[in-house]
Design brief:
The complex is a heterodimer of chains A (about 270) and B (about 280). Chain A is built from eleven helices and ten strands. With about 270 residues, chain A is of the alpha/beta class. In chain A, strands 6-7-8-3-9-10 form a six-stranded mixed β-sheet, with helices on both faces. Chain A has a four-stranded antiparallel β-sheet with strand order 2-1-4-5, with helices on one face. Chain B is an alpha/beta fold. Chain B has ten helices and ten strands. Classes of the chains: A alpha/beta (about 270), B alpha/beta (about 280). At the A-B interface, helix 6, helix 10 and helix 11 of A face helix 5, helix 6, helix 9 and helix 10 of B.
Chain lengths: ~270, ~280
């Protein structure tokens, strides 16, 4: 079943400059989808629409099989979690435990039911030893993991990551990518849509959707998408290191067979 | 502009339970005209270090000489001298777009030169010139900085520093959160500004940027200098010990070398350089 079904979506903040033009896409349950595009391509707006943050948009949109309209918004929002870019702007409590509990409290989950949920999600994100820690003593990566734990506590069907790694240092970034891998293994039902301009991150996804000026220009597996280096360059995105190196090698006249698909295989091939 | 750190220590929260030594005896000399990268993991003290160069921080002990200005723990500095110093040393903070505050782009960018005593007309001229440098045309002048995209806001904030024409430019993670094309544009602009005679300090986690742009690299680890020298020499060391990653090109080059493919030893700055080196190695 498609978890997200979008047909002919159009959206504009300003009538003269449409932000999203005629978007159609469908995302299957359990997939990890990377939505990439340069600053201003419309990717965050698309994520906000999927998250049910706009009351009125033009097009035929179904999220969790519910048409995107005012009376369904609460139902839609209750089944998804969002993690934003800035780790400091989404920590609402004075300790990790209370921060994770915030959403549960909002839903009036009885107190004795909360603890096991908090422990479970804290363990999932590897923050079980920091339950009493205050936000100022956590790294950016740790704060983002707490934010993810807070959304997981709500048992969402969809996790939206809106540039969740872009303000982190390399170590924090790695923590989040490892966590995404782990969540996919522990919870294959969970659908993850990650808005990013980190192509190395996008290369880990099942599908990559490339947005440019409000339109979808590429949609496919990372392998399919990153083979289009010309289009990526046009829309001002880099290819991942592996793909860039293959192109540079070919330009130097070093043949690279098509069945070489990753950096390890390339290393083996060059050293054989 | 010569900048000299003499046994600089900096302690945050002195005499509180949170007392913490951010810098622990830093000796450094910056002379000549280099693009210097300052790297280190989060919390290593690299931002603390550069904030001594424009006297945002005063050392707990030791001193920093910036041209003829002395930033020491106790010396009296007049407000006027600080202003002079900050005119010479421009600092672009991390996520500088959070500091935009005026109602139009033009007002925001012309604020610094005006603040440094440049007459209004001329300050506006400087603002226009700086906006042009960062790639924002006149259609932006009267817009509110708050309605711009993230990348455009960043450009406005950078223009605000450039408009004051500093002799030294300090950049704290200037590309964090930017898309790849905007990162490259931004860095190419700084490289250009550097080649026109401005000293540039680049504080970053991104080792790919260091490989591509830096002439000298300083690694700060636990408030001490762990490495100071040529980027290429650093990348041939074990970077794990400083919790840093190798740049992609060096990581791959190392892997090949380890398996017996002899790459010519020279500066690798781009993927194209690496491809050339591999080609030569294959033809040996």
């Amino acid at each position: 079943m498609a978890l997200i079904e979008i047909n002919n979506l159009n959206f504009a903040y300003d009538e003269e400059r449409p932000t999203l033009k005629n978007i159609s896409l469908s995302i299957e349950a359990g997939k990890y989808v990377a939505l990439i595009g340069h600053n201003g391509s419309g990717k965050s707006t698309l994520a906000k629409i999927i998250a049910g943050l706009f009351k009125k948009v033009e097009g035929d949109i179904k999220i969790f099989d519910l048409p995107l309209q005012k009376e369904n918004l609460v139902k839609i929002r209750s089944q998804l979690g969002i993690v934003f870019q800035n780790p400091d702007n989404q920590f609402v409590a004075s300790s990790v435990k209370e921060d994770i509990a915030f959403g549960l409290e909002n839903r009036a989950i009885p107190h004795d039911e909360m603890d096991p949920i908090i422990n479970e999600v804290a363990e999932e994100v590897g923050m079980e030893k920091f339950l009493d820690a205050a936000p100022e003593n956590l790294s950016g990566g740790q704060k983002q993991r707490v934010a993810i734990a807070g959304t997981l506590a709500m048992k969402p069907r969809l996790l939206l990551l809106d540039e969740a790694t872009s303000m982190l240092d390399p170590r924090g970034k790695k923590e989040i990518l490892n966590l995404i891998r782990k969540m996919r293994k522990d919870n294959p039902e969970l659908t993850i849509v990650s808005i990013t301009h980190d192509v190395e991150e996008a290369a880990l996804a099942d599908e990559v959707i490339v947005l440019n000026d409000g339109e979808i220009v590429l949609h496919g597996t990372p392998e399919e998408v990153f083979a289009h280096r010309d289009i990526l360059a046009q829309v001002r995105l880099d290819a991942p290191f592996f793909d860039s190196l293959v192109v540079a090698l070919k330009a130097e006249g070093v043949a690279v067979p098509d069945d070489i698909k990753d950096i390890k295989a390339l290393e083996d091939y060059l050293c054989r | 502009m010569p900048i000299i750190f003499k046994d600089v220590k900096y302690v945050y929260g002195a005499k509180t339970p949170f007392e913490y030594d951010a810098l622990n005896g830093i000796d450094l000399t910056f002379e000549g005209h280099k693009l210097t990268a300052i790297v280190g993991k989060t919390g290593s003290g690299k931002s603390t270090l550069v904030q001594h160069i424009n006297a945002l921080l005063r050392p707990t002990s030791g001193e920093v000489l910036i041209d003829d200005f002395v930033n020491g723990p106790k010396n009296k500095i007049k407000a006027k001298e600080i202003k002079e110093l900050r005119k010479k040393v421009g600092l672009v903070f991390q996520f500088p777009e959070y500091q935009l505050f005026q109602e139009t782009v033009e007002k925001d960018v012309s604020f610094a030169p005006k603040n440094f005593g440049v007459p209004r007309e001329e300050a506006i001229e400087k603002a226009h010139e700086a906006l042009q440098r960062v790639g924002l045309d006149e259609s932006f002048y009267s817009r509110s900085p708050f309605e711009l995209s993230g990348g455009e806001k960043r450009k406005v904030a950078i223009a605000g520093i450039l408009a004051a024409h500093p002799d030294v430019l300090i950049l704290d993670e200037p590309t964090a959160g930017l898309d790849p094309a905007a990162s490259k544009e931004t860095m190419d602009l700084f490289k250009q500004i550097h080649s026109e005679g401005t000293d540039v300090f680049l504080v970053t986690h991104d080792m790919n940027l260091v490989a591509r742009y830096a002439d000298r690299v300083i690694v700060i680890d636990d408030g001490r200098i762990a490495f100071d020298g040529d980027p290429k020499a650093l990348f041939n060391e074990d970077l794990e010990q400083y919790s840093l990653d190798n740049p992609d090109i060096y990581r791959f080059a190392k892997a090949l070398t380890k398996r017996g493919l002899k790459l010519p030893t020279r500066d690798l700055r781009t993927v194209e350089d690496l491809a050339k080196a591999i080609k030569e190695a294959k033809h040996e």
